[in-house]
Specification:
The chain is an alpha+beta fold. A six-stranded mixed sheet has the order 2-5-4-3-1-8. Strands 6-7 form a two-stranded antiparallel sheet. Strand 11 and strand 12 form a beta hairpin. The radius of gyration is 21 Å and the shape is globular. This is HNH nuclease domain-containing protein. Pfam families: HNH_2 (PF13391). It comes from Mesorhizobium plurifarium.
Length: 303
């Protein structure tokens, strides 16, 4: 059993879709059915939404809202944004079977009123998610994203090299595969930073199209951090090593912090011109989220 959660900007609900989805009482019974199962987030056109499916996640549990007992929170895990938004309708019509059955397409909006949480078939779920991961799973991107035989195990290789129809049948394995998730994260972070190290500003790409820069999680996945661009930095190998060990960190205004008593002096030259600012994405919405930065800085301060 799979589901769809509609998510709107400025909806008035206490949503943070990487970890929680807030909803009123009429949806509780459906949400309870989805505990332990996967859902797809969709943005309707209202509130300047993209009228597209944007991510997948898993419902871990449903808890009452302590401030508004009739409302509830779906606690989410394994959030994975799609490579690109998947349009609500494709070449063959709407992507959800229930919508394809609406005789008058102009009535689809009315049909969806009061259905912000709804069930979706396994086949439709798999088709939408597979479309959402199209760039990550594209064979031509395997070397650039380190999904090639030199970097992945046999089981992962069998997933990424399978035909799209087989990948759709094994979509839950793909969603949980760490190598695939890392590849999706790497692609989105490196693209956002134009393959340039946020600290040194260096941009190097080899003949196979693979960037030297790496995608670093700010709040580690092992500690609950999400695989989203706002929880990432594009960093060269040495800088990534220092960042993961909390020998360098960030201020709230995106300046570099360096543990001078622990970073060797010959490495400090890497940071000589970066104390005032980092090289960040042109799109400010993709800049590191202050909450994730604060978590990293706490570890840096206690290091």
């Amino acid at each position: 059993m799979k589901g769809i959660f509609d998510t709107k900007r400025n909806s008035g609900y206490d949503d943070e879709i990487t970890r929680q989805y807030h909803f009123p009482p009429q949806y509780r019974a459906i949400a309870d059915q989805l505990v332990g199962n996967w859902i797809i987030y969709r943005e309707p056109q209202r509130n300047q939404g993209r009228r597209a499916y944007i991510a997948a996640a898993r419902v871990l549990r449903v808890d009452p809202d302590p401030a508004r007992p009739s409302f509830s929170y779906a606690l989410m895990g394994d959030y994975l944004p799609f490579d690109q938004p998947v349009p609500f309708a494709g070449g063959g019509g709407y992507r959800e079977a229930a919508l394809r059955e609406v005789e008058d397409p102009s009535r689809v909006g009315a049909f969806l009123q009061g259905k912000s949480i709804r069930l979706v078939s396994e086949a439709d779920f798999a088709g939408i998610v597979r479309s959402g991961l199209d760039e990550t799973l594209a064979p031509e991107n395997s070397v650039r994203l380190e999904l090639d035989p030199l970097h992945v195990d046999h089981d992962t290789l069998s997933l990424v090299q399978a035909p799209p129809e087989e990948q759709a049948r094994r979509i839950e394995q793909i969603l949980l595969n760490r190598k695939v998730r890392d590849a999706s994260f790497r692609r989105q972070v490196c693209d956002a930073y134009d393959n340039r190290c946020a600290v040194t500003g260096l941009r190097m790409i080899n003949g196979g199209g693979k960037a030297e820069v790496q995608a670093a999680h700010i709040w580690p996945v092992a500690s609950g951090g999400p695989d989203v661009v706002q929880n990432g930095l594009a960093l060269s190998g040495t800088v990534h090593w220092l960042f993961d060990r909390h020998l360098i960190s960030l201020t709230d205004d995106y300046r570099l912090l360096v543990s001078h008593n622990k970073v060797p002096s010959d490495l400090r030259t890497l940071f000589a011109r970066q104390m005032e600012h980092l090289h960040l994405p042109k799109d400010r919405s993709l800049w590191p989220h202050p909450k994730y930065v604060a978590r990293h800085r706490e570890a840096f301060s206690s290091n």
